[in-house]
Sequence to fold (234 residues):
Amino acid sequence: MRIPLLLSLAILAGCSAPPPQTAPASVTSEPVRTITIGRTAVGNVVDVVNTVEPVAEAVCRERAPLLNCDFQMVIDETPGAPPNAFQTQDEDGRPIIAFTLALIGEARNRDELAFIMSHEAAHHILGHITRQKQNAMAGAQILGGLAYVLTGGSEESTRAGVELGAEIGARTYSKDFELESDALGTVIAARAGFDPLRGAEFFFRIPDPGNKFLGTHPANAARLATVQRVASQL
Fold:
């Protein structure tokens, strides 16, 4: 049996949100709000990056010595991008951590920025992108193969099965990945001299995803409990 190579699996970042949709030219849309950040916020980001980055790289070398541990920090200036942080990799495997301007403006203190940055660094150290891609590939193969057999090789049905399987596979352990990163992120933030409990207060101001089936993020209560548990052991 041959399943057509219909997979086009993007690298799945740890906490990324869907990119904002651009309205067609023929549709009247609200103007994109320009986000600016003040000097204090800029100073906070610079301080957090300079302090957390070497600690994150040291933890990376301790726990995953075969990985590229040279983190690159960037600011996503996409107009209208919501408060968000995400971790990805460049084509050479170098880990990239990005903050949107909206998130920088939303953070109330350096502890929150440090915890978020530490959380994203933990995604890389724990190999979540690779594991998520493997899960997506496994799901795509299973459902794609099933659709291929049940439909007699229909390319359209197989494509749908591959896409659905990839999505289900990628989401299967995503909540576990978030909690794992919260735990290691707590360690990194604390080692860098920040208060992870104060940093995790950011959860109080974001929508609670609850414990949805195949949701990408766990309930905020579970995340806070993880931070509290790990912090109490430090």
